[in-house]
Design goal:
By secondary structure, the chain is α/β, with parallel strands linked by helices. Helices cover 43% and strands 24% of the residues. The chain is built from 5 helices and 7 strands; from the N terminus they run ααβββββαβαβα. The strands form 2 sheets. It has a 5-stranded mixed β-sheet with strand order 1-4-5-6-7, with helices on both faces. Helix 3 packs parallel to helix 4.
Length: 175
């Protein structure tokens, strides 16, 4: 399973060599969505991109993360997928998770990102509300905008141990 995910990552890297900015970020985010989909389906589940109606007072808003994980038509979790996780992305994900949980969607909420770009103290502050259950990174080290992993000389392969931890979490979630 890991080898297949790492090959997907390498393949996406090759395609993105001449792309720029938002195109790269979007394609890498899609890669993370593909990793979640393939891994969850390998475990016997299904993945949908889904919005849920959330209500506050007399106002409603459709909220969701990038992937809703199902097993036998039962929601097992929700995943936000990022090429890298910075403080702004973490805060937005936390807000969505809070709204979803406060509207009865109590399944685990996780974030899967290739790279970490959040200071530990900032992460701890945002996670204090307990609306995000887990964060997983697939590449080692902190993200550096001066050393973007889509460039050949800075490319980082997926870390097998990190992927294994993430895979074990999903395996426990689906059982």
């Amino acid at each position: 399973m890991f080898a297949n995910m790492n090959n997907m990552h390498k393949s996406a890297h090759g395609v993105l060599k001449n792309a720029e900015g938002g195109t790269i970020r979007g394609a890498r985010g899609k890669l993370v969505e593909d990793i979640i989909k393939e891994t969850w389906e390998f475990l016997g589940g299904t993945v949908e991109k889904q919005k849920f109606q959330c209500t506050r007072g007399n106002q409603t808003c459709n909220m969701g993360l990038d992937a809703t994980l199902y097993k036998n038509d039962i929601i097992k979790g929700h995943v936000e997928c990022k090429s890298y996780l910075d403080l702004a992305f973490l805060e937005r994900a936390e807000w969505n998770c809070r709204e979803m949980k406060e509207n009865g969607l109590d399944q685990p909420k996780i974030i899967l990102a290739l790279e970490n770009s959040v200071r530990e103290s900032s992460k701890d502050y945002v996670l204090e509300g307990n609306y995000i259950d887990e964060i997983f990174y697939l590449c080692e080290g902190k993200r550096s905008s001066n050393k973007p992993i889509y460039k050949e000389e800075f490319f980082k392969e997926l870390n097998e141990e990190y992927f294994s931890t993430f895979y074990t979490y999903l395996k426990n979630l689906i059982d």
